[in-house]
Amino acid sequence: MANTETMTLNMGPQHPSTHGVLRLVVELDGEVIQSITPHIGYLHRGVEKLSEHRTYHQTLPLTDRLDYLAPMHNNLGYVLAVEKLLDLEVPERAQTIRVIMAELTRIMSHLVWLACHALDIGAMTVFIYCFREREEIMNIYEKISGARMTTNYFRIGGLSKDVYEGFEADVRKIIDTFPGFFDQYEGLLTKNTIWLNRTIGNGVISAEDAIDYGITGPALRGSGVDWDLRRDNPYSGYEKYSFKVPVGEKCDTFDRYKVRLIEMREAVKILRQALDSLKPGPILADDPQVCYPPKEAVYNTIEGLIHHFKIASEGFPAPEGEIYLGVENPKGELGYYIVSDGGTKPYRMKIRSPSFVNLQSMEKMCKGAMIADLIAVIGTLDIVLGEIDR
Amino acid sequence: MWPPKGNHMGLPLQRKIMEQIIFYILAAATVIATVFSITERHAVHAIVYLVTSFFALAVIFYLLGAPLVAVFEVIIYAGAIMVLFMFVIMMLDLGHPEKVGTPGIRDWWPALVLAGVVFAAIVTIVAAATGSPAAGQAIGVREFALVLFQRYGVAIEIISMQLLFALVGALYLGRRQGKGEKP
Amino acid sequence: MSNATLDIILLLAKIALVFFVILTMAAYLVLAERRILAWIQDRKGPNRVGPQGLLQPLADVIKMLTKEDVRPAGADKWLFYLAPAMAAIPAILTFAVIPFGAPVILFGRELPLVISDLNVGLLFFMALSSIAVYGVAIGGWASNSKYALLGSIRGLAQLISYELSMGLSLVPAVMLSRSFRLSDIVNAQAHVPFIVYQPLAFIIFLISIAAECKRIPFDLPEAEGELVAGFHTEYSGMRFGLFFVGEYINVIVLGGLAASFFLGGWHGPWLPAPVWFIVKVLAFAVFFIWMRGTLPRLRYDQLMHFGWKVLTPLALINILVTGWWLMLR
User: Fold this and answer.
1) Contact B90 C137 (CB under 8 A)
2) To the nearest whole percent, how much of chain A has pLDDT over 70?
3) pTM
4) Of A293, B115, B153, C16, which sits 20 to 30 A from A342 (CA to CA)?
5) What would the mean pLDDT of C293-315 be, rounded to a whole number?
């Protein structure tokens, strides 16, 4: 019979809504999805393998390029993992600045998510608004590290340099203005019947299924699982801040949308607390074996230059052993698993990227839904191909 | 008379010649498009030819002073029925219709019989016709509606009820097939 | 010069004028849309070509004319080339029945400011809008692309569904004016526009025409997030341009119709009639642009449900109520 035939649609790698170079082979019956097969690897750069041939310091810039929408947070996970391996104590000021940058990154990543999610569903104005606000955070990035996307600002043992003058004022401005912008987005979306129709009941995945699939981050919390590494396994001094962990109920796209929006508001709260507790002090651990000397010493003294040269060319040996550390990235649990054989380079580094794990639940969420629902699910999963393909 | 209203389109004789020229162009278009729509193997092409034919036919109706029939020809036949045909054709994968061979004489004979009947009817009408047919009086919407809903009102109601039954029946059949086991 | 010749010359001049005005308006509507959207979205929009970007439409036309005219392998050549014209022509033709001003006296004769005041003008518009489906359907089908095919199937389903509610929402206007002729409908609103008596019909008509010209909450046939560009995915150069311009002509024409059916057409105080008409048309165009800046897109099944289960029954009830009201009055 002719009318029971399905159609195979190849979505991507060039498609406006696949957020990069994701390729989906979708089996369609009319517009109803029968099956989805993701094909990945179009952005594979071999980050894990490359790191085996680089010192611990040299591996750091590679991690910027994983989830390129949240570079600071990728750096954070990596430096924390190496610091745990070395058992290195990081000064308090460095920790606080790390939290500030990490939360700014969370807001930035969620802004891009909201922008693309809204654009996929057709709300064009929210897209532009979100990018307008993202620009503010990008400017802070640029001032603090010199780069807008591949920041490479953190260092093993602390930070590459202290914050610039006026940093606090810039962050205060964000704290003061952003909640208003979030209200603006909510005004355009949360009360919009079409938006509600498109997101409520879309891409449902139960809490058990979400855990079975290994989903993490806002997607897991949207399914009603109260799990946030910042609270449940604190790192970098997150235990000092009080914040709510939003949890959804209906396990659908709308709940995940609400969870992320509340997370942005909570991130602003954390920013305020962190900024209030920011005190002057050193920004790098006092461990000449591991940490780079300050720039004045490198430029002005022969000892400093030799010190710098030695760390840059040779690196530092890490004790033998293996270590896993997961951080709550904007997209979910980003884990670094490092095996050290006692040398100056990782013997093996495995990156557990949240997008990669979250992506596999797509078929579960979309089966029996329509093409438009698939687009909404790609948006709500908030995947980044740089992280999936590594 | 045509045009239905207004008197600014030249002398009656000129108008008559013009009307005749247009009529023959349209008649030729109708016949040619219809022939093509029959001989065309590709279903979508055939639909496009048929729509062309309907369009030309609609303008002929207009020339004959039946504007309402003309627009209904387009709205119903070209705009609704043919669109549904097209919808079905797009949904189905018909393979390669252009590779199917020419129909044999066995497939032709029902069409030939029908053509013979039609031809005989035309001959009879032409033979029985007395003089030239009266030039059509332009029928306005109001007159049309009065005749339709007063003189033939009961018939119209019965037909629409029948169509409604057919619609509900089709819906019922379609539903059952959808709910039943899939082959 | 004989009377007949003068008549024909005046008629041709009128057609040429309308044609020119509509095409220019469509071209500048594209620019207006980009500028207004940019204004809504807190950015600048095209402002480089000419003062305030006023020559941008010209630049766009040159760009589209000089682009390569690509035909995908395996496309149905004949229909692929025909479809853009089938999309643009019905839109332009519809304007033939829209009166855009009071009759004027020129060379000692009365010249109605409408190209052809058909006694079945409203039905003529319905006929052409039902034909406009073919451009979308055939364009998508002939492209030999799956996105385009999905887009054209969506387009077919959407246009025939919303045509129904559009037609039904116009019935009260016909009942009130007792004519299918557009100039009669406009003249019946010389004092009170029909929107006062028929707000519901007006809203249904407005939603339906938004769906008919495939504007944002209803832009499923070309949903760029889902189907890349829907039915015109494979088109390039001026053929794409025809689809594009056809859509904007449609906005103008449907805006003109909405003005004629519910807002009293060219009637209005102080200003001359054609100005009033253009103002009303542009108000609709701006409304559509505003909607695009605000709303997300519906899903296919939601769109169909909305058309069949909400708009059509509402329009039918509205007709019944109008009938009772006219009987009792």
Assistant:
1) yes
2) 99
3) 0.82
4) A293
5) 86
Task: Chain A: list its partners (3+ Cβ pairs within 8 Å).
Answer: B, C
Rounded CA-CA distance B16/B22 in Å is: 10
Per residue in C102-124, pLDDT (tens digit) is 777 777 777 777 777 778 888 88
Q: For residue C105, what pLDDT is reported?
A: 75
Q: Is the pLDDT of residue B181 over 50?
A: no
Residue in B91, B94, B183 closest to A1 by CB: B183
Q: Is C120's CB within 8 Å of B51's CB?
A: no
**β-sheet bridge partners, residue A23:** A39
**Nearest Cα residue in chain C from A373:** C299
Quote the pLDDT of residue A1.
37
Best A371, A373, A378 member to test C by mutation, with max C CBs in 10 Å, is A371
In a domain, C22, yes or no: no
The answer, yes or no, to whether residue C218 has pLDDT greater than 80, is yes
Retrieve residue A263's tokens.
């997370």
ipTM score of complex: 0.80
Taking the CA of residue C185 as centre, how many other CA atoms within 13 Å lie in the half-sphere pointing to its CB? 31
What are the chain C neighbours of A118 within 8 Å (beta carbons)? Answer: 296
Q: How far is C18 from chain A (nearest CA, A)?
A: 34
Report the DSSP beta bridge partners of residue C219: none
* Residues C231, A26: Cα–Cα separation, whole Å: 19
Residues β-bridged to residue A325: A336
Bridge partners for A333 per DSSP: A328
Mean pLDDT (chain C, rounded): 84
CB contact under 8 A, A5 and B182: no
Residues of B with CB under 8 A from a CB of C: 4-6, 8-11, 14, 42, 44-45, 48, 51, 55, 58, 67-68, 70-72, 74-75, 78-80, 83-84, 86-87, 90-91, 140-141
What is the tens place of the pLDDT at every residue in B6-63? Answer: 444 445 677 778 888 888 898 899 999 988 888 877 788 888 888 889 889 888 888 8
Which parts of chain A fold into alpha helices (H)? 47-51, 56-64, 71-86, 92-121, 124-145, 167-189, 193-199, 207-212, 218-222, 229-232, 253-276, 295-300, 302-314, 354-359, 362-366, 371-381, 385-389
For residue A263, list its beta bridge partners. none
Can you tell me the distance from the alpha carbon of B90 to that of C150, in angstroms, rounded to the nearest whole number? 9
Does a structural domain hold residue C5?
Answer: no
Give DSSP secondary structure letters for A314-354.
H-----SEEEEEEEEETTEEEEEEEEE-SSSS-SEEEEE-H
Query: By C-alpha distance, which of A368, A30, B95 is closest to C150?
Result: A30
Evaluated on CA atoms C283, C289, C292, C293, the torsion sign reads: negative
Taking the Cβ of residue A14 and every Cβ of chain B, the question of whether any pair is shorter than 8 Å is answered with: no
Residues of the domain holding C86: 67-328
Distance from CA of C43 to the nearest CA of B (A): 41
User: Cβ of C228 and A120 within 8 Å?
Assistant: no
CB contact under 8 A, A122 and C293: no
Say which amino acid occupies A77.
G
In a domain, C194, yes or no: yes
Partner residue facing B90 (CB), from C3, C76, C149: C149
A263, pLDDT greater than 70: yes
Q: Model confidence over A341-356: pLDDT tens digits?
A: 888 888 888 888 888 8
Report CB contact under 8 Å: A5, B183.
no
Q: Does A368 touch chain B (CB under 8 A)?
A: no
- Whether A4 has its CB under 8 Å from any CB of chain B: the answer is yes
Question: What is the number of structural domains in chain C?
Answer: 1
**What residues of chain C lie within 8 A of the CB of B75, using their CB?**
123, 126-127, 130
Q: Confirm whether C156 is domain-assigned.
A: yes
Q: Out of 1.10.340.30, 1.10.645.10, 2.60.120.230, 1.10.10.10, which CATH number does the structure's domain A47-287+316-383 have?
A: 1.10.645.10
Burial category of B180 from C-beta neighbours within 10 Å (exposed 0-12, middle 13-18, buried 19 and up) = exposed
